Amino acid sequence: MTVISQNTDTQALTLTFVAEFNADVERVWQIWEDPRQLESWWGPPDWPATFHQYDFAVGALAKYYMTGPDGDRPRGWWRITAIDAPNRFEFDDGFSDENDEPDSTVGPGHAVVTLERAGSGTRMTITTQFTSEEQLTQMIQMGMEEGMNQALGQIDALLLESVRR
Fold this sequence. Notes:
Elements (H helix, E strand, L loop, with lengths): L2 E7 L4 E8 L3 H9 L1 H5 L9 E5 L7 E6 L8 E10 L3 E9 L12 E10 L2 E9 L3 H9 L2 H9 L2 H10 L1
Antiparallel strand pairs: 1-2, 2-8, 3-4, 4-5, 5-6, 6-7, 7-8
């Protein structure tokens, strides 16, 4: 299993996932840097993502939608706030309305992704900071924990696929 730990901290208002992969840090970095690879795993298998705007640069805005089993298309956005390739980047993460404008009814979270060598592979830690316990609870009720576990579970196949090419 890819995910080796998950932690919800209601005091710190964070949700953290730690996963390990049999690939070097530079290769795992590519699954974030390349929007086509990102689409291969961002979102659970039955809610795939499509990034229709993506520039992996500080200050850049990424826009995407996820397509549900019934054709629903909830939208989201990222604002990349820091990059230290290939070991760390940060982004604000929020929902969008049907016009790709940020949805102000649910505030954005702030995610920090770190990649570090772990034996012959890579350990990836994703920590999302929320603005309130209510927001953290809302994201959990919306299925963020299960969805991230499923999404991260798709990365091994993507990394293996690139080895076969």
